[in-house]
Design a protein that fits this description.
- The protein is built from three helices and 16 strands.
- It is mainly β.
- The chain has three domains: 59 residues, SH3 type barrels (Roll), CATH 2.30.30.30; 59 residues, Nucleic acid-binding proteins (OB fold (Dihydrolipoamide Acetyltransferase, E2P)); 57 residues, OB fold (Dihydrolipoamide Acetyltransferase, E2P) (Beta Barrel), CATH 2.40.50.
- It has a five-stranded antiparallel beta sheet with strand order 9-8-7-10-11. The chain has a five-stranded antiparallel beta sheet with strand order 14-13-12-15-16, with no helix packed on it. The protein has a four-stranded antiparallel beta sheet with strand order 2-3-4-5, with no helix packed on it.
- The protein starts with a strand and ends in a 16-residue tail after the last helix.
């Protein structure tokens, strides 16, 4: 048991025999009357979302949810197959329970499978994922400040809106909650190692080179050698 003051996003409540997931909540204190908690709840079975207001500090029944990280294997046409990376047990999940997570799932990708008494409740994806763009219209350089967008198809087949300068083949970061574009993924370039001979001659530390130049500047100038003394002959 918990109270409405303990609500958190993602928590699953058992209300009148049905499971509801907390999508959003807010504590509110009106000018008159007691404090309340406004929530947006999603029905686990039907996917329907409703707004519900609770009085503050009211007891609610919190459902026991087991979350496990599983690896998505494939889609056999009727269900999505996940594998428990610890026990290697496979689990088939229907498309209705996978929901919008299917828009960001790639084979061998990990996701969180939430269950209650052995029954799958929902699939939870990370807040953001990195996916490649398989098709979009040619990018236009210099249009980063216009705010205009264009449709782009991800490698999962899902379509999102991206800025005009994004090109086909690029990898982008996408928010899994609303399919919004978060930015391009920069590739990491690692320079090739140089030969040992080159490293030995060109990698002198700056401080060491500076000290060498200082010593050369402060070194005394060489004195001219005095001519040999000779005894004059008479």
């Amino acid at each position: 048991m918990a109270t409405t003051n303990d609500l958190k996003n993602g928590m699953v409540l058992n209300l009148d025999g049905q499971l509801w997931q907390v999508i959003w909540f807010q504590h509110h204190k009106p000018g008159k009357g007691g404090a309340v908690v406004r929530t947006k709840l999603k029905n686990i079975k039907s996917g329907k979302s409703v707004d519900k207001t609770f009085n503050a500090d009211v007891k609610v029944d919190v459902a026991s949810v087991d979350k496990r990280t599983m690896q998505y294997l494939y889609n056999d046409g009727t269900s999505y197959v996940f594998m428990d990376t610890g026990t290697f047990d496979q689990l088939e999940v229907g498309p209705d329970l996978v929901g919008d997570a299917k828009n960001f799932l790639l084979e061998n990708q990990e996701a969180i499978v939430a269950t209650n008494d052995g029954r799958v409740l929902y699939i939870e994806m990370p807040a953001s994922v990195e996916l490649a763009i398989t098709f979009t219209e040619p990018g236009l350089a210099g249009d980063s400040a216009t705010g205009r967008t264009k449709p782009a198809t991800l490698e999962t087949g899902h379509e999102i809106q991206v800025p005009l300068f994004v090109t086909q083949g690029e990898k982008v970061k996408v928010d899994t909650r609303d399919s919004s574009y978060l930015g391009r993924v920069k590739s990491c370039w690692v320079p090739a190692p140089r030969p040992a001979s080159a490293r030995s001659t060109s990698c002198t530390p700056r401080s060491s080179a500076r000290r060498t130049r200082w010593r050369r500047w402060t070194a005394p100038w060489p004195r001219a050698k005095a001519p040999p003394t000779t005894t004059p002959r008479h």
